[in-house]
What we know:
- By secondary structure, the protein is α/β, with parallel strands linked by helices.
Amino acid sequence: MSQSTQLHRREAAKLPTVGVAVITISDTRTEETDESGKLVRQLLEAAGHRVDVYTILKDEPDMISAEVRRLTAEGAVQAIITNGGTGIAPRDGTFEAVSGLLQRELPGFGEIFRMLSYHEVGAAAMLSRAVAGLRGKTFIFCIPGSANAVRVAMEKLIVPELAHLVWEANRRG
Length: 173
């Protein structure tokens, strides 16, 4: 790790906890059956972050984009993590609902997620349309809804960098 990266992480570590909205995208899950949403929340809280909003939405692109717009307009959270709806099935609409709202995409997120997933599931990793980026100063991460994909995305990518990303988006100069 470079000296610059180490410095940024030390600065990011001074941040208060990050407030996050967790949105499960599913036509069938309920709060009781939403294991992936529960895992996202547990991993965030274990890392010292706050889950300020948790909701389950149907896989309806208009509903998803409206909720993302509302959360980013209010500035109530510094990050939004959606899980579910990132595949290629006809009902998978998260990518379409969110990608057009991103003002600054983080292409490396989806690329690295698919690379890590490849080691887990092989060529099927290409089916994921995981995406991340910024809308205003709010980070948005769209990850698949399987528990294994959630664990990979959260443990390998999101949790280790979340405070650093928020620090970068808010620093001056």
